[in-house]
Amino acid sequence: MTNVMGRIWYDVRVRAWFIQIVILAGFVGTISWLAVNTAENLARRGIRTGFEFLSGAARFPIAESLIAYDPTSSYLRAFTVGLINTLHVSILTIVIATILGAVIGMGRRSANPVVANMAGVYVEVFRNTPLVVQLLFWYGLLTLAMPASRAALEPVPGVFLSLRGLFFPWPVWNETIALLLMIGVAGIAASISIAAISRRDGRLLKRRSLIHKTILAMSAVGIAAAIATGTVRFDWPALSGFNFEGGATLTPEFTALMVGLVLYTAAFVAEIVRGAIAAVPKGQWEAGWAVGLRERQILRLVVLPQALRLMVPPMTSQYLNVVKNTTLALAVGYPDFAAVVATTINQTNQAIEGVAILMAVYLSISLSISLFMNWYNASVALVQR
Questions:
Q1: Where are the alpha helices (DSSP H) in the chain?
Q2: I need a surface site. Which of 4, 163, 222, 333 has the fewest CB within 10 A?
């Protein structure tokens, strides 16, 4: 019997399973003890638990909302408003910072020393300054350096800039706007499809540029015709009392958050782009020159497709950081998801539920970004044969 037990114990697989079971049992036991202890302490203090509060009236205003909201709305509605605000800022930051960072990253490799040094100074300044300091700087600049509404600047007719934000005309939603959006989406889908098919069909690759230009020209003509014929109407801002009404508004809070996040993120994206391009072997440039390609053609057709495969993993981490950095919106007063949850916790005292929702939402967003970027990374990866 002793020999049998000894052989079982010295079996590598048995010991591995035993250790894992012990660790799992310890983890479950610790979580269970914490849950029971927390429940007893909450009950002793008379603090309610559960998620029933989500259906109750929020009773607090949200300064900026992309959907209808008022203080009589439920906490669930308030959470939805905060989540949409967070996604709105995150998506805009990712798109703009990626474009700006790519330009700056290629600028750092410029043969012009002025351009290269300016790009280098930009990257060093914004990467080595805390983001919250940058947000406060932009917010202070927008609120302290701008005039009051009655003395608002008007750089372009119909566009007003004051300490309350930037006010500009905005199209009134109607069937024509919906049709134009559908045309735009169809044009983007067609361009993506053409780009995908052209990789397999060399004949279409030669005509791809012409097809893209045709789609853009048709879309531009359609939009210009709709505006010229008056089928697209604009709502113009006008001074009313101490503020402007009508049109669209970029508030100082939103603008400071966007400017800070974009400039900060673009500095990191620039280094990712610069490093990926530098990692492509110099022989690829020489091969392009040997077949008569110009430098821009080599960069666009030879180097960037290879560098893109190196950019995707660090870009994924940077995009995840963008979502997490939006929680600093509280510093400038923008009502993102974290700010709405914090207000809810202060009112309901249900911190555990609030933090659990906060963690679940940000975890879901991060996993969604990771899954998408991993799928894209697999689609552009080289296939080994």
A1: 2-9, 12-45, 75-107, 113-127, 131-144, 175-198, 202-228, 252-279, 282-290, 295-298, 304-325, 337-348, 351-380
A2: 4
